[in-house]
Write a structure and sequence with these properties.
39% of the residues lie in helices and 20% in strands. The protein is an alpha/beta fold.
Length: 235
């Protein structure tokens, strides 16, 4: 059953690849999207590389940039560079103005090596827009290594040549719990094509949207942060 739900979850993500509708998968994804979209619209410019891009869920947010490249450890149609973020030898140094790295750093055993590589591929003064989890179930096993506090990610960034410019909490406990419920509901029924649109709509209006609103008031993000979204500049 667990493997079936994992496969269905991946199929849903691929189905909505690059679409804004993906944000309605769960309260946690919606809260993440809201935080990420603000920072991407504010800071992303010039040459942009999306590191650990997955199915490029934020690609539609990228506007008025010169170049948009993608990198992931698995080859796919959406991927320009296939490489481990800890050793991106295929990517030239000081090439990009902006690096995106969303929900990736928890999946690499050497976070500092990954950040040093991001520092290398960014131009001087370039920016890293990132997100990291704090509340999260185990996922992408066996490659699930870390959870981050705001102080922890700040320490790692400053130790690898970055200055942290902005960091915000992207949700709380209600969004985390809602994510588990949405994942179970959508993934369980996704294998039945005739029910997909009905289940997706029901989840969107009965779980994702109302729970994300409740999370703003009762999610206790100071005590139970879902995770963080932030911007760091290469020194």
């Amino acid at each position: 059953m667990r493997d079936k739900l994992v496969r269905s979850r991946q199929e849903v993500e691929q189905y909505f690849a690059g679409s804004a509708e993906w944000r309605h998968f769960s309260p946690a994804i919606l809260r993440q999207y809201q935080a990420v979209s603000q920072l991407v619209r504010k800071y992303a410019y010039g040459w942009v590389i999306d590191l650990g891009c997955g199915f490029t869920p934020y690609r539609h947010l990228i506007h008025n940039v010169l170049v948009y490249h993608t990198l992931d450890v698995r080859p796919r149609r959406e991927v320009d560079f296939v490489a481990d973020i800890q050793r991106m030898t295929v990517v030239p140094s000081e090439c990009y103005d902006t690096a995106l790295c969303f929900e990736v750093l928890e999946h690499v055993p050497d976070t500092q090596a990954a950040l040093r590589e991001i520092h290398r591929v960014l131009k001087p003064g370039g920016r890293l827009i990132f997100s990291v989890p704090f509340l999260s179930r185990l996922h992408e096993l066996p490659h699930d290594y870390y959870r981050f506090t705001a102080n922890g990610i700040a320490y790692l960034l400053e130790g690898t040549g970055f200055t942290l410019e902005e960091i915000v909490v992207r949700g709380g406990l209600i969004a985390f719990l809602g994510h588990q419920l949405s994942t179970a509901v959508v993934s369980f029924w996704w294998s039945i094509p005739l029910l997909r649109s009905t289940v997706w709509s029901a989840n969107k209006w009965l779980i994702t949207k109302p729970w994300s609103i409740i999370d703003r008031w009762l999610g206790f993000p100071d005590l139970f942060p879902l995770g963080y979204v932030g911007v760091a500049q290469r020194v």
